[in-house]
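Protocol step 4 of 6: record predicted structures for both targets in the notebook before any analysis. Target 1:
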Amino acid sequence: MPSKDLSWKYVEDQTVESDGIRAARAQSLELGIEPVSPATGAHLAVIAAALRAESVIEIGTGTGVSGLWVLQGAPDALLTSIDIEADHHDVARRHFTEAGYAPSRVRLITGRALEVLPRMNEASYDLVLIDADAGSIADYLEHALRLVRPGGAVLIPHALWRDTVADPAKRDGVTAELRGIIAAISESAAVHVAISPVGDGLLQLITAR
């Protein structure tokens, strides 16, 4: 195994997840939902903590893995999470409750994100997390950049898309779209950009103040 792979495996293995996040992860895998990796989750928590996030919007709830990590880093935040699957929200709601988060702290909206997001207030969120349908990433990102406050963060897990983005021979739709997004925002003066290879890749944008 190449040394880089050993390092990445070490980082994942050394990440300690709470019992609640482990339970949500296990159920996610049972339902065929791909959650963020443990180390990616730890990155989400660190960024949420650094921002002292008070208002977070998440596109793609799943069983609550990402949301639980964000709230671990920003325990006083209000989390709004959107998912098209009501069944996913039923599962996630239970995990949030069992982790000790009051229903008033976690607002779950069932519906199509591209129909819900236009109703959200501009520049009102400290952190926007995009962890949903990869084929709509560009549309989600457009909304995210409208919703996040100056100096806030937009985070996109799975940004390296199963190691295909770095391979020029791979040209499927999702891969090409992510590659184009990364190229375009890397040249933008409106955001500070970093890509971490942790998990399946984490694209991190901090908007200019």
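Target 2:
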Amino acid sequence: MNIKELRPESSPEAAFGARLRRSREERGWTQEELASQTGYSSQHISAVETGRKPPTRRFSRGLDAVFGLEGTSDGFESAERELKNGSLLEGFPEYVGHEGRAAEIRLFEVGVIPGPLQTREYAAAVEASHVKRGTITPEQAAERVEFLIERQAALVRPLPPLVIAVLDESCIRRSVGGPRVMDEQLGRLIDFAEQPNTSLQIAPFAMGERRPFNRLVNLLTLTDRSVVAYVESQTQGYLDRETPSVLPLVRAYHQLQTEAPSQAESVAMINQVRKGTS
């Protein structure tokens, strides 16, 4: 039997299908066996797995019931909801699935606080700006915020992941949502830095050309110690598992951490900026 090779990075539908196939195969189920448990045909399962048919809300809820993911941020229903909204870039749905199970998460961002560190109010202000520009509806904005909160909840576990964040200074200087929202957001960063499983550094403008990244870069160390990378442009996201291209990003991230001020110095910088938002 010929099994079609999947390219999860090619589209959100393909990422959904690749995850479905991986989840099924991890349990040793055939498409027929999964079909009998969900009430769908094996042809339907095959079409979703290969990206030829988009998943429906009902189908995704059925998958969550079968795989024991009901009510979780890592469920198929959450992935389907974001897919339908068109609010996720290519590669991101699969990235979020990995993030919810990663042993170590390394984040770098320019201009905006990374999602795992955002307050609800900050996230809502970011999405409200998209509504104002007409790129999404108010309903989609609300769902994006709820998805983010669920994504954050997936990182709260009995054995939480190590979360390392290096933020460009623009992240804390750029006002989002007004003084009160920014004050609370900066306070959230300080609280984050105080956790036993976290590390926070600010890459100041003075680093200049020594800053190795100009866009978002996320690196995940999975439980099998493999590393995957997720990067974004303005219109496209890309999840990379290939060692030859991931290792240079890991090396550059270590260099970034070496060049950036310490956590104590970074928290002092945040407190200084925070005084100006009060």
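Step 5 preliminary note on target 2. The longest helix spans residues 243-259. The chain has two domains: 7-86, 89-115+154-278.
Proceed to step 6 after PI sign-off.
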